[in-house]
Design brief:
Elements (H helix, E strand, L loop, with lengths): L2 H6 L1 H6 L8 H18 L6 E5 L5 H10 L4 E5 L12 H10 L6 E4 L16 E7 L8 H11 L3 E9 L9 H15 L14 H7 L7 E7 L6 H13 L2 H5 L3 H17 L10 E6 L1
Parallel strand pairs: 1-2, 1-4, 2-3, 4-5
Antiparallel strand pairs: 5-7, 6-7
Helix pairs in contact: 3-4, 7-9, 7-11, 9-11
């Protein structure tokens, strides 16, 4: 399926998501973004895909459309189905499972691929996908171990994440919100936010050879219509307003976080903050 064909399916794919009941325009833009990614990856009909960090299934739905009726997507997440708001992971998965894409998807929540009880035979999957989920990992070591663990199970890796290097001053607020959250986590104040271990594209390129994957392509990904900048700014300002999170920090780090939050408030707009760009990498 080519890029134009898959992107043309974005409206009905978005409409099938439970979150579309609350924010149809936002869901459509998120689905368009993922449809463009998957179309550029040339995942053939009939393929088998392991998706790590599937969340509410934004990427899962697009992958299921790409693999077609004869393909299969195994969508894995460590989170409990009750996680998420205003729609939980379980509610979103149930909506997809009840729709036309349901027979192509196997959702597995509360599943950690590092658990010795979780495993697949060698080359079970044609592709393994991590899309906008790697900053959820608790550390780069955790990500490294996960990529090494799944290496024998799949022939090809497709990876996309936000790019920490801003392309313009309009993206600085998103960047600062991400870095504040990452610093807070790194200093020992753990939370359940989207950003726990932000890392650069260069860090990933240094890490991948340790896991048995060899990068063979990639490039920038446009994020101009996405709302994630606004979401992470709001999440960051909520974090610095939580006294229990700040109290867990060493005093010097607490003051650094508070000062950076002051700068963030000065930089951020009430809404419409431009998101960081993203990048995509492919590996064998």
């Amino acid at each position: 399926m080519n890029r134009s064909d898959l992107r043309a399916q974005a409206p009905w794919l978005a409409a099938g998501m439970a979150a579309a009941d609350h924010s149809p325009d936002i869901q459509l833009s998120q689905t368009r973004h993922r449809a463009a990614l998957v179309a550029s990856w040339h995942i053939a009909p009939g393929s088998t895909v392991l998706e790590l960090g599937c969340g509410q299934g934004d990427m899962t739905a697009v992958l299921a459309e790409a693999v077609g009726p004869q393909g299969r997507v195994t969508a894995v997440d460590v989170a409990d189905p009750s996680y998420g708001a205003p729609v939980t992971l379980g509610e979103s998965a149930a909506r997809l499972a009840a729709g036309p894409l349901g027979p192509r998807i196997d959702f597995r929540f509360n599943t950690d691929v590092l658990d010795p009880a979780v495993g697949f035979p060698e080359n079970t999957f044609d592709h393994v996908v991590l899309a906008h989920c790697s900053w959820y990992f608790t550390s780069l070591g955790h990500l490294r171990d996960t990529l090494a663990r799944v290496r024998p199970w799949a022939r090809r890796l497709w990876f996309t994440e936000w790019d920490l290097t801003p392309a313009s001053g309009e993206q600085l607020a998103h960047l600062l919100a991400v870095l504040i959250q990452g610093q807070t986590e790194a200093a020992g104040s753990r939370g359940q936010g989207n950003v726990r271990t932000p890392f650069s594209r260069e860090s990933l390129l240094r890490l991948l050879p340790e896991t048995g994957w060899s990068v063979d392509g990639g490039g920038p990904v446009d994020t101009g219509e996405l709302q994630d900048g606004d979401w992470e700014i709001a999440a960051c300002l909520d974090l610095v307003g939580r006294q229990e999170r700040l109290a867990a920090l060493p005093e010097a780090m607490r003051q650094l976080v508070l000062s950076q939050a002051d700068v963030l408030r000065a930089l951020a707009k009430p809404r419409g903050n431009r998101a960081l760009a993203a990048y995509s990498l492919t590996a064998r």
